[in-house]
Amino acid sequence: MTNYTKLPAILLLADGTVFYGKAAGKIGTTTGEICFNTGMTGYQEIFTDPSYFGQIMVTTNAHIGNYGIHKDEIESGSIKIAGLVCKNYNIIYSRKEATESIQDYFQNDNLVAIADIDTRALVRHIRDKGAMNAIISSEITDLEELKQKLAEVPSMEGLELSSKVSTSEPYFYGNPEASLKVAALDLGIKKNILRSFENRDIYVQVFPAKTTFAEMEKFSPDGYFISNGPGDPSVMPYAVETIKEILAVDKPLFGICLGHQLLAEANGIGTMKMFNGHRGLNHPVKNIIKNHCEVTSQNHGFGVIPDEVRNSDKVEITHVNLNDKSIEGIRVKGKKAFSVQYHPESSPGPHDSRYLFDDFVEVMKGELAW
């Protein structure tokens, strides 16, 4: 087990706020947009979620690393967060099934982190001031030098990141003899989404982010899936065009998170950068079609513009966030297309929303229509 050095480290926010802590993970410097996740468990799934690419994660749970690292609890092939900020950084872990400590994991994947931070004070600050860029360093102590480096970091608004985390080549997932086939556009897809399809007897071909509709259609799928992912949906015309072509032939389509935002864009509805976004495992959402509440897992910093959704003659609202009334789900009128802003695959998180995969199956089989 690699030693935890406890060398000094600095966290500097774009508004000039400074926090001093101890180095964790790799000794070095990292930058990104700082955000916080309110989940009480599932840190490894969070670290490897491609939707967090380019972001520094603050965990509100006081203990990180306490149950170790397990190879089966990853959502992609590597750590995707840009850095970690936590309070208690636990090298010694309790779970027998774990294969390594968080320190070994971070060092092997070159992740820079900072611990011994008052994360409650930090989260309250971000909550009030909004999302902003930040820098962590365990090798630079000069604040002026850190400020110069931080000033060079671009805003998340306007960044196209999905092509950076997408697969470079198409691949298959599941049983080739399955009863249904789905073509998935990988904008930062999570492994548990693919498992959720496989568990419903669906064979998936996963395509790179910039794949055309014509290329995906060669798979002769029963339906199309538009995945979650990082970055600003308003600068992804390639994906919007693909969705428009799917809608034009009226094939079943299901979108999650970024896929939800892009479905809105394809219907003339704009998207926006949120003040803080939603990240955690306890966000209440009302399904206004079925008149029930779901506790959902969420991770997004962009959202659809509510007034534009309400005024649209192309879509109808299916789900609403009960905290801030943001739009959490839509379906396209006269089409077999629907999407949600949250994560029904719930890894980590509650399983309240997994019925959406069943709804997609029913749409592909022609057993569910609206």
Automatic annotation (TrEMBL):
Pfam families per the UniProt record, alphabetical: CPSase_sm_chain, GATase
Q: Please provide the record's keywords in A-Z order.
A: Amino-acid biosynthesis, Arginine biosynthesis, ATP-binding, Glutamine amidotransferase, Ligase, Nucleotide-binding, Pyrimidine biosynthesis
Pathway given in the UniProt record: Amino-acid biosynthesis; L-arginine biosynthesis; carbamoyl phosphate from bicarbonate: step 1/1; Pyrimidine metabolism; UMP biosynthesis via de novo pathway; (S)-dihydroorotate from bicarbonate: step 1/3
Q: Mind telling me which SMART domains this protein's record contains?
A: CPSase_sm_chain
List the molecular function annotations (GO) for this entry.
Answer: ATP binding; carbamoyl-phosphate synthase (glutamine-hydrolyzing) activity; glutaminase activity
Name of the protein in question: Carbamoyl phosphate synthase small chain
GO biological process, alphabetically ordered: 'de novo' pyrimidine nucleobase biosynthetic process; 'de novo' UMP biosynthetic process; glutamine metabolic process; L-arginine biosynthetic process
The record's subunit annotation is: Composed of two chains; the small (or glutamine) chain promotes the hydrolysis of glutamine to ammonia, which is used by the large (or ammonia) chain to synthesize carbamoyl phosphate. Tetramer of heterodimers (alpha,beta)4.
Residue intervals of the Carbamoyl-phosphate synthase small subunit N-terminal domain: 7-137
Q: Record keywords: NAD included? A: no
- Function description: Small subunit of the glutamine-dependent carbamoyl phosphate synthetase (CPSase). CPSase catalyzes the formation of carbamoyl phosphate from the ammonia moiety of glutamine, carbonate, and phosphate donated by ATP, constituting the first step of 2 biosynthetic pathways, one leading to arginine and/or urea and the other to pyrimidine nucleotides. The small subunit (glutamine amidotransferase) binds and cleaves glutamine to supply the large subunit with the substrate ammonia.
Which PANTHER family does this chain map to? CARBAMOYL-PHOSPHATE SYNTHASE SMALL CHAIN, MULTIFUNCTIONAL TRYPTOPHAN BIOSYNTHESIS PROTEIN-RELATED
Region CPSase, annotated ranges: 1-180
Q: State the source organism's domain of life.
A: Bacteria
Q: What family classification does the UniProt entry report for this protein?
A: Belongs to the CarA family.
Show the active-site residues: 257, 343, 345
HAMAP family the UniProt entry points to: CPSase_S_chain (MF_01209)
Q: Binding residues for L-glutamine, per the UniProt record?
A: 51, 229, 231, 258, 261, 299, 301-302
